[in-house]
TrEMBL record:
<keyword id="KW-0679">Respiratory chain</keyword>
<dbReference type="InterPro" id="IPR036922">
    <property type="entry name" value="Rieske_2Fe-2S_sf"/>
</dbReference>
<dbReference type="Pfam" id="PF00355">
    <property type="entry name" value="Rieske"/>
</dbReference>
<keyword id="KW-0813">Transport</keyword>
<keyword id="KW-0408">Iron</keyword>
<keyword id="KW-0472">Membrane</keyword>
<keyword id="KW-1015">Disulfide bond</keyword>
<dbReference type="InterPro" id="IPR045603">
    <property type="entry name" value="QcrA_N"/>
</dbReference>
<keyword id="KW-0411">Iron-sulfur</keyword>
<dbReference type="InterPro" id="IPR014349">
    <property type="entry name" value="Rieske_Fe-S_prot"/>
</dbReference>
<keyword id="KW-0479">Metal-binding</keyword>
<keyword id="KW-0812">Transmembrane</keyword>
<dbReference type="Pfam" id="PF19297">
    <property type="entry name" value="QcrA_N"/>
</dbReference>
<dbReference type="InterPro" id="IPR017941">
    <property type="entry name" value="Rieske_2Fe-2S"/>
</dbReference>
<comment type="function">
    <text>Iron-sulfur subunit of the cytochrome bc1 complex, an essential component of the respiratory electron transport chain required for ATP synthesis. The bc1 complex catalyzes the oxidation of menaquinol and the reduction of cytochrome c in the respiratory chain. The bc1 complex operates through a Q-cycle mechanism that couples electron transfer to generation of the proton gradient that drives ATP synthesis.</text>
</comment>
<protein>
    <recommendedName>
        <fullName>Cytochrome bc1 complex Rieske iron-sulfur subunit</fullName>
    </recommendedName>
</protein>
<keyword id="KW-0001">2Fe-2S</keyword>
Length: 356
């Protein structure tokens, strides 16, 4: 479309003149400021009934958000995880997932819709022209900004004077919505309680060879050898085998009693046989490398090295503390047995964070 096809009344200089422009565009000044059109008041600005109606709509949306959040929490508590329902056109889906998604979506949408409706119908919509100014504001400008902010608070009705219904429902919605996230934390898993502090080892529990599934005698362990053991009653086909072996895995090394430097280690051993947790105290890798001459064991993941002749203390690598030792002895039939559980939790960095 060419300029000849445009009505004279729609040309820029005609529009600017009609609206009380600050300048008129011509060939010498083609970019003159055309100014602003006359301000048109919204119906809420001139009709108190319309203003109250908008206020009720905003309050209703915030109230809907609160109800949806309560519904989210109720669904999380009441609906079983394995319940499947048919919903057209989605088909067969998890009732819990559908309920959580719908209620949380409604809660967030209602807050957003309420805020938008509040801003569009009740907050001040007067256009304000501001000239460009240096980045550093003068005292007069700063005072003007604070003044405008106070005026905006007054106009929006957030203060304690007008529109308490909207303010209260907004605060209620914003207070309840975060509870959805707090409730979801419960889904991270059951509370551990004391489970991490105890293993299957207990007084009288036999030490069973991992490879042969047979109980061990002292004669089965030669000097300088490394043997892996697990508690009696634990089998690979058990549904909780991996969970239990991750805490109870044991390694046995037979040393010459004169080579054991740590007094407690010697007291908790049997004929030079020492039993230590196989779980590295760095990130929980299984320790499997043994150096016979130095009595050192090495974790293959990050090379943490422990001295089994000196309380399994850390002599190299990122591990934070020594390996826990299991006190052992023999029963009346001559089999190696545990004389209790580990005295400290096994695994990585647990006791720096846990409470006793």
């Amino acid at each position: 479309m060419s300029s000849h096809d445009i009505s004279e009344d729609n040309l820029p200089h005609k529009q600017a003149h009609a609206h009380g422009a600050l300048g008129v565009a011509d060939k010498d000044n083609p970019f003159a400021d055309p100014g602003l059109p006359p301000h048109e008041h919204r119906i809420q600005d001139i009709d108190e009934k319309a203003s109250k109606r908008s206020e009720r709509i905003v309050a209703a949306l915030f109230t809907l958000s609160m109800l949806a959040t309560i519904g989210f929490i109720a669904a999380f508590v009441a609906l079983p995880v394995d319940k499947i329902v048919y919903i057209f056109p989605l088909g067969h889906i998890s009732a819990l997932n559908f309920s959580l998604g719908m209620t949380l979506g409604v809660a967030l949408f209602a807050i957003g819709a309420g805020a938008v409706h509040w801003a569009r119908t009740l907050m001040s919509d007067v256009e304000v022209a501001a000239e460009r100014h240096p980045i550093e504001a003068s005292p007069e400008v700063r005072e003007q900004v604070f003044s405008d902010f106070r005026d905006g608070v007054t106009e929006s009705g957030i203060g304690f004077g007008r529109r308490k219904l909207m303010r209260n429902t907004l605060l209620g919605a914003l207070t309840l919505v975060p509870l959805s996230g707090v409730v979801l934390l419960r889904e991270l898993g059951p509370l551990p309680g004391e489970k991490l502090r105890h293993t299957m080892w207990s007084k009288g529990k036999l030490l069973v060879n991992v490879n042969t599934d047979e109980p061990l005698r002292p004669s089965d362990i030669a000097v300088g050898s490394l043997t892996f053991a697990m508690p009696e009653g634990l089998h690979e086909h058990d549904h909780d085998f991996q969970k239990e072996i991750a805490k109870a895995a044991l390694m046995l090394v037979r040393l010459e009693p004169n080579d054991i430097k740590d007094k407690r280690e010697l007291e908790w051993s049997h004929e030079g046989i020492v039993a230590y947790s196989k779980i590295c105290t760095h990130v929980g890798c299984p320790i499997s490398l043994y150096e016979q001459q130095t009595h050192h064991v090495l974790c293959p993941c990050h090379q943490s090295t422990f001295d089994l002749a000196d309380g399994a203390r850390v002599i190299f690598g990122p591990a934070g503390h020594a390996l826990p030792q299991l006190r052992i002895g023999v029963n009346d039939e001559g089999y190696l047995q545990a004389l209790g559980d580990f005295e400290e939790p096994v695994g990585p960095a647990f006791w720096e964070r846990g409470e006793s």
